Amino acid sequence: MRKGLDEVNITLINVGKLKEKYLKQGIEEYTKRLNAYANIQIIEVADEKAPENMSELEMLQVKEKEGERILSKLSTDTYVIALAIKGKKWSSERLAKELDNLATYGKSKIAFVIGGSVGLSDAVLQRADEHLSFSDMTFPHQLIRLILVEQIYRAFRINRNEPYHK
Ligand SMILES: C[S@@+](CC[C@H](N)C(=O)[O-])C[C@H]1O[C@@H](n2cnc3c(N)ncnc32)[C@H](O)[C@@H]1O
């Protein structure tokens, strides 16, 4: 059944608690603005200790444990967009269009997933319907959360033909 974007539930699934105050403030601001347009929920799953000198195997284990926690938050009818450096690069207009299309085709649950300091497990990447990249650069996962929430807000403004800074 066709749905409007305002009927869509957007969930951001993140690994670890947000620590920096300036990021918290920015995310709260965009979440508040977004709430005028959609239901938005932010979920934080526990992170694993990830010391600098971990072996490949330990890193894999961290990803897998965090991945299981992420997967436990996803229902089978959720459309999942994983944030991944090697994913597709979309313009803001393309993200707006994709969200609009998902609403049009009755997808009312959309989850964006951001990995922890060592990234997302293969199981999460395989579960995802799309992999989205913001650039070839690696951003801290907490900063990506702020960039993502701003881009989702921008997408809603674009879809509503409302003015926003270019
Ligand atoms: C510190 S990065 C992890 C780096 C890890 N080596 C990897 O390759 O995924 C943490 C998370 O932030 C997100 N992220 C970081 N940079 C990104 C980018 N340029 N585009 C999309 N997501 C990004 C991804 O979800 C990633 O799992």
From TrEMBL:
Its main location: cytoplasm. GO terms for biological process: methylation. One of its GO terms (molecular function) is methyltransferase activity. Its EC number is 2.1.1.177. SUPFAM superfamilies: alpha/beta knot. Belongs to the RNA methyltransferase RlmH family. HAMAP family: 23SrRNA_methyltr_H. This is Ribosomal RNA large subunit methyltransferase H. It comes from Evansella vedderi.
